[in-house]
UniProtKB/TrEMBL annotation:
A Pfam family per the record: Metallophos_2
MF GO annotations: hydrolase activity; metal ion binding
Presence of the UniProt keyword Isomerase in the record: no
Family the UniProt entry places it in: Belongs to the metallophosphoesterase superfamily. YfcE family.
Cofactor(s) required for function per UniProt: a divalent metal cation
Protein name as annotated: Phosphoesterase
Length: 195
């Protein structure tokens, strides 16, 4: 099974749309978001995805009540955890997800997980600790590194790759403002939701 791993969206609707277009080509079955959505509009996009999304909180998630309500709406494909970390078992792989790098390496060293994914630093990184893959997919927002990237975790091969998006814009530019109108934004080929 292929799982897309994203982090640090920071309300960059444009780059998130590019991400959805890219994963359409990759046969992704799940999306994991490692926090920092920044607003409920991003949550609505994730909830409207045709692919199930598992998300945890980061340190910049804005209105957590609104985001949680969006995830609980009927037909939502977004599941939001209650903390900045979670323990998952997907396709017989034990996975630990966290927003914070400081927790990631000790969890990878524990020997309890096949993969550990983290965000927060915005810097893409792949490493292996014993038999555990440890990955930061980088940022969708592109405002710290001037790149937008995500990871694809293949549970069958227990392998990961980082993919950089093309034609990105930085969330701080004037061009990004047109993507902030929540009513005009939805992922390609998404379900129609009323919010």
């Amino acid at each position: 099974m292929k799982i897309a791993i994203i982090s640090d969206i920071h309300e960059n609707f444009h780059n998130l749309v590019l991400f959805f277009k890219e994963i359409e080509k990759l046969n992704v079955k799940k999306i994991i978001c490692l926090g920092d959505l920044m607003n409920n509009g991003i949550a609505k996009m994730l909830a409207a995805s045709d692919i199930p999304v598992i998300a945890i909180w980061g340190n910049n998630d804005g209105d957590k009540v609104a985001i949680t309500k969006t995830s609980l709406k009927e037909g939502s494909n977004l599941t939001v955890g209650f903390t900045t970390y979670d323990f998952l078992e997907i396709d017989n792989k034990k996975i630990f997800i966290t927003h914070y790098p400081i927790i990631a390496k000790p969890m990878a060293k524990s020997g309890d997980f096949d993969a550990v994914f983290y965000g927060h630093s915005h810097k893409k990184h792949i490493d292996k600790v014993n038999d555990c893959i440890i990955v930061n997919p980088g940022e969708i927002s592109s405002h710290r590194t001037s790149t937008a990237s995500f990871a694809i975790y293949d549970t069958t091969k227990n392998d990961v790759e980082i993919i950089e998006l093309e034609n990105i814009i930085c969330v701080n530019t004037e061009d990004a403002k047109k993507y902030r109108n929540e009513k005009q934004i939805k992922p390609p080929n998404s379900k129609t939701h009323e919010y």
